[in-house]
Specification:
Layout: H1 8-23, H2 28-34, H3 39-54, H4 61-71, H5 76-92
Helix pairs in contact: 4-5
Length: 103
């Protein structure tokens, strides 16, 4: 994202956050935007989740946190929190439901 205090991207993100808060939803796309993920980083994470699905391998929140840390420099706590948010969002979006688990 742009570091300017009132950039169009930042204002748009604030509006999206406010709308989602009102609707009490947190889509995965917004989580990726909030954490400034590039397209390549999103693709890398989704590729890992797709591979796990094809291999019928369970992906737990801790596994997802580890994948996030490979893709993006995050502290353990930040990766764990983001993994929980992402897992919840993806399951609510009915994505990776056969292998992704909140446990």
């Amino acid at each position: 994202m742009n570091d300017q205090p009132f950039s169009t991207n930042m204002l748009t993100l604030e509006v999206l956050d406010a709308i989602c808060d009102r609707l009490q939803i947190r889509p995965s796309a917004l989580i990726f935007l909030d954490h400034d993920f590039s397209s390549d980083e999103v693709v890398a994470l989704e590729k890992q989740l797709i591979d796990n699905t094809h291999q019928q391998r369970r992906t737990h929140v801790t596994d997802l946190a580890q994948h996030l840390q490979v893709i993006k420099p995050l502290t353990d706590a930040a990766a764990q929190q983001m993994a929980g948010e992402l897992a919840t969002a993806l399951i609510q979006e009915d994505r990776f439901t056969r292998t992704l688990t909140l446990a």
